[in-house]
TrEMBL record:
InterPro entries: ASHA1/2-like_C, START-like_dom_sf. Residues 15-140 form the Activator of Hsp90 ATPase homologue 1/2-like C-terminal domain. Pfam families: AHSA1. Belongs to the AHA1 family. SUPFAM superfamilies: Bet v1-like. It comes from the Bacteria. This is Activator of Hsp90 ATPase homologue 1/2-like C-terminal domain-containing protein.
Length: 153
């Protein structure tokens, strides 16, 4: 059934929940490991944009902040630029970041749901694997991977 597929991924990081939250919500820092800056005031109901870091100001993804509970939970919609961005709208998926501290590490659970079909789920999975690997590397070493992982064939 369309719009019901989910991709979920869990990774563990040697960092703090506050640093993970900052890396997800700060435009400059998210741009360093993602190639796009995440731009919003991060209040529920606010718009957010996934803007290119090339200076063009182009947003390749847009959405609405559904939940914002720093530093443990962020939920947004995920949509094409110019399309409707509300939850439940056609073509709109939902992304949840769950950030759980455990002693000196963090469990980051990414859930991307309401995907239209298996091809969209596979594309999302490939992108998220690369982005989260780069996020983990940046937070644990102070620098992103030397080559953007999403450019690998």
């Amino acid at each position: 059934m369309a719009g019901t597929l989910t991709f979920r991924y869990v990774t563990y990081l040697a960092t703090t929940p506050e640093k993970v939250w900052h890396a997800l919500t700060d435009p400059e820092l998210s741009g360093a490991y993602w190639g796009h800056g995440n731009v919003s005031d991060w209040r529920p109901g606010s718009r957010w944009e996934h803007r290119r870091t090339d200076g063009s100001g182009i947003a390749d993804v847009e959405g609405v902040v559904l939940e914002s509970a720093p530093p443990t939970r962020l939920v947004t919609t995920w949509a094409e630029p110019g399309a409707p961005t509300g939850r439940g709208e056609p073509g709109v998926s939902t992304v949840t970041f769950g950030i759980e501290p455990y002693e000196e590490i963090v469990r980051l659970t990414l859930t991307h749901e309401d995907l239209a079909d298996e091809a969209e789920r596979e594309a999302a999975a490939g992108g998220w694997f690369a982005v989260l690997a780069n996020l983990k590397t940046l937070l644990e070493t102070g620098r992103p991977l030397p080559k953007e992982p999403w450019t690998m064939p």
